[in-house]
Structure formats: C-alpha cells, structure tokens
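Researcher: Batch entry, complex prediction.
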Amino acid sequence: MPIEPLKLRQVSVFEHATDDDLGLIARHGIERSIEEGEFFFFQGDPTSHGYVLTAGRAKLMQVNPAGQQVNLRTISVWEMFGALGAVRKNATYPASAQAMEPSTALAIKSEYLRELMQTRPYLSIGLMQLMTGYVQEIQERYRELATEKVERRIARVLLRLTAQLGVKTPDGNIELAFSRQELAEMSGTTLYTVSRVLSEWEKHGLVESGRERVVIRKPHGLVKVAEEADE
Amino acid sequence: MPIEPLKLRQVSVFEHATDDDLGLIARHGIERSIEEGEFFFFQGDPTSHGYVLTAGRAKLMQVNPAGQQVNLRTISVWEMFGALGAVRKNATYPASAQAMEPSTALAIKSEYLRELMQTRPYLSIGLMQLMTGYVQEIQERYRELATEKVERRIARVLLRLTAQLGVKTPDGNIELAFSRQELAEMSGTTLYTVSRVLSEWEKHGLVESGRERVVIRKPHGLVKVAEEADE
DNA sequence: CGAACAATTGATCCTCATCAAACCTTGTGG
DNA sequence: CCACAAGGTTTGATGAGGATCAATTGTTCG
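Model: Structure tokens for the complex:
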C-alpha cells in the first residue's frame, strides 16, 4: 500500500514543502519493511538513500572494531534518518540503522534529494536544522559521557526517552519499552549496572521495572538524580 | 587592518563563493582580536555571530554544571565556528569558544548569514557539509569514549592533532603544542593519566615530550596503539 | 634568582566492568 | 494445560582501570 503523501508533512524537514513536492517525494520513494533486528543500512555502505520511518522503531548505532556497539539515537515514526550521509556525494553511512521492532521506512534516492535541494531552499534549511539539533544532542551526550557518573547518565537517558517515546499507562504513569541491554548501550555502560541502578531506584519508588519495560513513577525524582550535584 | 577578502576563499564554506560575495562578507564582518584564555563567545549566549578564525588557535568546549570541561574541537586558521548556532533563529551557542593563544576572528552577523543563505545555495550546501563532517567526527569520538581504553583514546587524539595541527620540526619529526591538561580534556581523562601514558610511550621511543609540547617520533607506533586489538 | 606554573610519580581509593550462578518471564509444543 | 526452553534479569564476588591526592621535580620568564 503506497504512502499517503500528505502524511509526509509530519516530517520536520518537509514541514514547509508544497503539497506537490510531497507528492513527488512520495512517488520517488520506495517503501521498505523489515523485521526486528534487521538493518535498513550498515555503517560503511554507500549512502544511496535517505529514509523516513513510517512505522515501527529503529536505532542508529556504531560498532567498533572489537564488535562493541554504541547507540547514537533512537528513531521514531516520521523521523528522517540516513539523510546526513545523503547530503554528500559518494559518502558512506557513518552508522548502521537497525529495526527494534518490525518497521517500515520510505527510502528516497540520495541523488533525488540533492536534486531537490538545489531548487527548494526549505529543504536545505530543514535538513540543516535537523542536523544542528542532532549535533547539539550528541555534543551534550559526549560531555555527559566524559564527565558524569553512570547513575546520572542512566537517569538522563530515561528522561530523554520519556520525552521522545514515553507511553502513558492507564494509571497515568509513563512506560518505556527497552531492555536493560538497550538502556546500557544508550548510556554507555553494561546491562548489569543498569539492572543494579534500576533496582536501587525501585527501592526508593522512583521507577518500577519488568522484562523489557520500565515505568517511570516519579519523573521529578529522576530529574533530581540527573541534575543534582554529587552528594 | 581590514581583512583581504580573497583570503576568505580558504574557508571551506566559502569555497564556491564569487569574488563579490567574498567582498561583501569581508565588509560585513568585524575583526575581533582576543588574548589567550579569553572567549569569543560563551555557551548559552544568544547566537549573534558566526566566526571565521583568521589568526591564532581556539577551542570549542562545553562545561558541565560542576565546572568540569570537555573539549569538543580545536579550531585552526580559516575554519568557521559558531555558525552552527547561527543557522537557527533565536538559538544559543551550544559550546564556548576560547582562544588557546592570542587570536583574531572575523565575526559575521547571524542574520546576515541567514540572509545570504536564502539566495546562495553554495552557502547552505557548504555549511551542511561542514556540519556533516562535524557530526561524523563527534559520533566517532562518542563511540571511542564509550568503548575504548584511555591509552588508545590518547593515541587517537594525538593522531588527529598531528593531521590537523602538526608542525614539522627541523629534524623531520612532528611537534604538537598542547599541555597535558589540554590533551586530557580532549581525550576525556585527567592530566595525570596523560602524563603517565606519555612517559610510558617515551620509554618505548614513540614520542618525546616536554612542557606544553609533544614530539611524535613514530607515528606508525601510535597508529598501532590506536588500532590494534587489546593484547 | 625566584615565582609561577607545568609535569612527574607514588600511594590510595572508588567506581564499574566482568564473570558466574541463579532466578523470572514469556512463549511454545507436546 | 503443563513443562520446558530461551532469553531477559538479578545479585554476589572479584578485580582492573583510572581518578584523586600529595609531594617533588622541572621549566620558563620577568
């Protein structure tokens, strides 16, 4: 089933596109559905396409030579990804994009994106804003990783995820669907440490956790952990 | 003394500018000279200007609430900085820019940059490429910080600096002018650890170090430290 | 020459990673 | 519907890698 063009307006980069442009983009794109754990593209592949996630959830990650992986970012629906590499000719993706659940994305040829950019200033500007936001986030995370203790980093990760991907439960709390392993990769630590920290927080009533699931009971308490000077 | 407009062609972002444009930019810019240790702008200031470094050397850094600082990037002559924030209206600089030696920069009003971008596609594209390069570098460094041991990170820092800022000595070696403290901030560690690692390397003849100075004797040896799997 | 600042080096401590084992949860097939 | 397998989670024990602190030594420059 082909994508409804006007829905693309939800993509921040296409916010100021004309309806015609959205139609063009939708028609030039190809929808690709993949299973959980599969990849849209790998780090090092030539940057043939830019993507817009239309269903599911994915993550951008890098792997080091020894095979350890780091999560750079979680992508939710109507976010653009892989476009960064598409801007430059003959570049390769600096990271891999893996589906965290069955997912679908609209793949748009890089050349076509570049072509559009020549005549649509809103596109370059939108992409640039996307990128500046991204730079700021990762700079921030870099600083955190360099200077903050693990507990605080985990708190920050949960807060970020709450804002981006939190799901309200019937009883008014916010639930996140991530495994310990995933949280560890996002905060630059190990699943053991994440588990210990969550247990500790659970004792104090800050969170409630289960298999591949964390419920935030006291966001304010987490903010305190994230912000407060070391005791 | 006003800046020679055509020299601005050396700035990667202005590579495809017309001579006229360079003249315009030079005339709209104001040169600002500051002493070592002073700042061009602080993290959190409104992004009033984009800068081009015309003399000296500077660093981009972030400070956390506790006052610890992290170096994001070293800026050398003819590099643009602070432009990232200038792209967005009403934003604030995500980092501070501090002179590492007496330095001069051409400050260009953000609004003027945005105005130019509307009619000069080369500018948006150039800025975007600058940014993609930057994103890639910091992503890479983020991964390093999360997964690599200190020694390797320090080796990487030295190699990066060698490429960007290395100065050939008469006897054919490459010299870097950085204090232990600065190297520590760049590799996410402490000056003590940097000192120990350098001493160790010196024993093996890889480097030779002095006050605010490191001479790379065997770049290949450093590459080995940076790349090789843990023994 | 002496003051100020950078670097070294040793001793100690602390945070986390790592390893191992047991425990839960979820889903599947008999 | 139960039993079992598979994979996620917890928790304890241990140790390594660096951070931190303190004292000393070197270097530069007025």
